[in-house]
Amino acid sequence: MKRIVLEQHHDGTIDSQGHSATPASPNPEQPQPRTPTPSSSRQQRQRQTIPPELIEIVVPSLKVGAAAGACGIFAGATAGIIRSAPTVLFSAFAGVQWFTLGFSYYGARQVALNYFGGREAETAPRDKLKASTVAGGFAGLSGGLLRGPRNILPGILMFSLYGAGGQTVLNWMDAKRAARAAESPSTQSNGFWSRWSPLKRLSDQDYEKILEERLLGVEADIAMVDDHIRELLESEKKAKGGSPGADKGSSVPPDRE
To answer: Is residue 194 part of a domain?
Structure first.
């Protein structure tokens, strides 16, 4: 009767005949497949579910709303100090209200621009005017909901007028700037403070005009000097011609001849 001895190796696997079945060593050059972690798979699902157009609208709107809310906090605190009222309450309410106005206005304007044509609407003055008007009305609606139902219609009307008026002014400024750039594109400088700068950017034509003016000035000075020299020579000739014996070249006075 044969006695079968089952030897257990370090990996703990034993075949039917008593020999251990060692697994094949993995090839170090062959990349091992990565098992996705639950957190990474969850993030990928969230990215797939959220459309990129919504992200492009919401994230900038949050930034604009945060900047407006910060300004509202300072404005509310200033108003509370002037009125001798609770500063924290005034600043918190003003911050929330300004954040809502900035977020709703910018987000509604981006949605309206995308609806009117996207990138092409951002350069069309009429589309920008319509988008700003609609965004102003939506911001007035949001602000009216915070202040009470009675303020909804006045808020929509006033903020629509504000949006349309502000965009009209911006369109006029853009048209004026484009006309100036078309007339002299090389002499236009960017920035607000460049108007008060003592330095001025010149084009090649302006520089040539300046050089021509300076050259004409130098030529005029040379002509004046030539005239002055000519006058001095003529006066010297007259002085020599008036003295007796100057034409003959004799140094003897005429009374001694």
So the answer is: no
Q: Nearest-CA neighbor of 125 among 73, 99, 98, 164?
A: 164
The one-letter amino acid code at 223 reads A
Q: Are 168 and 136 in contact (CB under 8 A)?
A: no
CB contact at 8 A, 141 and 129:
no
Query: Could you list the residue range(s) of the whole structural domain that residue 93 is in?
Result: 51-181
E strand intervals along the chain? none
In a domain, 148, yes or no: yes
CA 144/CA 154 separation, integer angstroms: 8
Spatial CA neighbour of 177 closest among 164, 199, 161, 194? 194
**Domain count of the chain?**
1
Within a domain: 193? no
Residues in contact with 138: Cβ distance below 8 Å, sequence separation at least 6, in sequence order:
104, 105, 108
> Would you say residue 102 lies in a domain?
yes
With residue 84 as reference, give the H or E element that holds it.
none
CA 99 distance to own-chain centroid: 22
Residue 135's alpha-carbon distances to 140, 179, 201, 233, 256, in angstroms, are: 9, 28, 39, 84, 114
Q: pTM for the complete prediction?
A: 0.52
Distance, CA of 253 to CA of 257 (rounded, Å)? 7
Q: Which residues of the chain have pLDDT under 50?
A: 1-2, 5-10, 12, 14, 16, 18, 186-188, 246-257
